[in-house]
């Protein structure tokens, strides 16, 4: 199996996330990935997928992923059934961090218990 085939799920995720300026080359059995993620969260997703495939310190892949918008952790589009605590649990692993999400979105939200589908919320860096 080629190293590119081994990491195909990483490349597929990069396409799904619309990583910009993507470039993938293979040199001496090492896959070199370069691109720009929209947010730190998306960069983390790429790295998590790399580790899922290659382990914590893979020797057969290098990735140079920059971040387009470092001012936020991510931007989340609200879907039906979402709540700020569910969103906080998803991004931070802690539903009580909903307060930080609410504070970062007071221009859009007036009440932490009322959010609507299609609203785009800032998920702040903590």
Give a nutshell description of this structure.
This protein is α+β, with helices and mostly antiparallel strands and 126 residues long.
Explain the layout of strands and helices:
Layout: H1 3-6, H2 8-16, E1 20-27, E2 30-37, H3 40-54, E3 61-67, E4 74-77, H4 84-92, H5 98-104, E5 120-123
Parallel strand pairs: 2-3
Antiparallel strand pairs: 1-2, 4-5
Helix pairs in contact: 2-3, 4-5
Mean pLDDT: 96
State the low-pLDDT regions, or none. none
Strand order of the largest sheet: 1-2-3
Helicity level, as a percent range?
A: 25-40%
Output the number of helix runs.
Answer: 5
* Strand segment count: 5
What order do the helices and strands follow?
HHEEHEEHHE
Rg is: 17 Å
What is the terminal-to-terminal distance?
Answer: 40 Å
Structural class: alpha+beta
**Shape, per Cα inertia axes:** elongated
Main beta sheet strand tally, sense and closure: 3 strands, mixed
Task: Report the sheet-strand fraction.
Answer: 15-25%
């Amino acid at each position: 199996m080629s190293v590119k085939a081994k990491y195909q799920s990483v490349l597929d995720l990069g396409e799904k996330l619309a990583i910009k300026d993507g470039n993938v080359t293979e040199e001496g059995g090492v896959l070199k990935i370069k691109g720009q993620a929209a947010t730190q969260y998306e960069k983390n997703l790429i790295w998590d997928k790399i580790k899922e495939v290659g382990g914590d310190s893979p020797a057969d892949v290098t990735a140079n992923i920059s971040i387009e918008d470092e001012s936020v952790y991510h931007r989340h589009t609200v879907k039906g059934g979402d709540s700020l605590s569910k969103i906080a649990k998803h991004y931070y692993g802690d539903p009580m961090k909903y307060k930080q999400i609410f504070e970062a979105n007071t221009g859009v939200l007036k009440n932490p218990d009322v959010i609507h589908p299609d609203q785009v919320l800032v998920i702040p860096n903590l």
